[in-house]
Amino acid sequence: MLLLKIFRLLRRRCATPRNDIIKISLILLTFFSISSCSKTHKSNTLRFSHFWTEPGQRAVLDSVLSDFKKENPEINVEVMDLSWADGKTKLMVNFNARTAPDVLELGSDWIAQFSSSNVLEDLTNVSSLKSRFENAPEYANEPGKWKSHYYAVPWFVDTRVLFINNDLLEQTTPSPITLYLFNGLSQWEGMYNVGEEIQKKGTGNGIGVNGSDMHRLYKKILPQIWSNGGDIFDTQGNPTFARKENIEALAFYIKQLNAGVMETQKNLDDLFKRGKLGILYSGSWLFDPLKKADFKWYCALFPGNGLHPGISFAGGEYLAVNANSGMKLQAEKFIEFITRPDNELRLAKAFNIFPADKKLQQDSFFLNRNQGKVFIDQLAHARMTPVHPKWLEIEAILEDETAQALYKKKTPEEAMKSCDVRVKELLNEP
């Protein structure tokens, strides 16, 4: 059962028995409160859970839902607001209580936990949704698939690029070859050397390096691994953390500490916004605050190493149907509507995210905004996390071992070898 999986997950992730008890108690309270309301489902009402709860986002979403009602007056939509802090846990408890929504939004790294548990409807042969899969990048389809079947429709995608403080860059005197390599994004060393020059100048930090930062650190080390020709699993799903390419990637990530500063993502973003950081790997959420910046900045694609192309991290939002829903046809009609090009584009603009549809990404709204084209280009060279039911536990191991290396408690080789051993042990558990 999913509830048993929650207990097992919490026991691995909680730092102390006391934390274990507190979290399990909270889940039990939620479970019983939901169970007591299991008979409240209104007839002819489609229940939809989502995470877009900020006032501006919710206003546009409500407007789209109102349009759906106009086109489908026979279907009522009941909205369930979730938060990123505990939304996944609530959904898992809902499924165990048989009160899960008919249509649910899922993050890209969650889907395998649900699809592998047989609680999502197979959407492979739904003809009205076929174009949604065809128009999405292949990497965006992968999280929604399980055993070659589609269980979730790509809705939105996002990625990260390099943000460059041009004022700090111009204060340095790097060699012409260094500037060429960095601007051409063909070599890691070009980026490192520019960061080092900024650091030496003393007017700001060179490169921003994420320290221990749950659910964020792995998004920094994976692009380094991919952009060095490495990977953390082979084609049969066996862990390959200890590969030479991966060890090299971790070593280079740690080396960047010599040319920069280590902080959380939030603090690194703040440093860049204040003009105190030269090179930052971050996302489009910086666009609005940087409109007020008193320095010149620009974005660049994530660099590859040697002959390997630069590959960035991509995340995504998906829509799925509850396999036990009594309104499957209505749910499919709802997903078809809310992912329809005009509605997907309208929502993506309001949510400050990119549509999963590659054609919609070429809309002038994204291409013409400051540095928007860099993000569109990066989305063509990006990857998502491996599709695995235990990904969140694998992620925790990768982040822990990366942090051990960052804080000099292990060498990069020791950290990657330990990661390999720990993940193999995890996968061998029942």
Describe the structure.
With 430 residues, the protein is an alpha/beta fold. The protein has 20 helices and 13 strands.
Briefly, what is this?
The strands form 2 sheets. Strands 1, 2, 3, 6, 7, 8, 9, 10, 11, 12 and 13 form an 11-stranded mixed sheet that branches. The protein is globular. β4 and β5 (149-150) form a beta hairpin.
In helices, the fraction of residues equals 40-55%
Shape: globular
Number of strands: 13
For the largest beta-sheet, the strand count, sense and barrel status come to: 11 strands, mixed
Mean pLDDT: 89
Rg, nearest Å: 22 Å
* Weakly predicted, low-confidence segments: 1-40
Set out the fold topology.
Blueprint: H1 2-13, H2 17-35, E1 45-50, H3 55-71, E2 76-81, H4 87-96, E3 103-107, H5 111-115, H6 130-134, H7 138-141, E4 145-146, E5 149-150, E6 153-165, H8 166-170, H9 176-184, H10 188-201, E7 205-210, H11 218-226, H12 244-255, E8 260-263, H13 265-273, E9 277-283, H14 287-290, E10 297-300, E11 312-321, H15 328-338, H16 341-351, E12 354-355, H17 364-368, H18 372-379, E13 382-383, H19 391-406, H20 412-428
Parallel strand pairs: 1-2, 1-3, 7-8, 7-9, 11-13
Antiparallel strand pairs: 3-11, 4-5, 6-9, 6-10, 6-11, 6-12
Helix pairs in contact: 2-4, 3-16, 9-10, 11-12, 12-20, 19-20
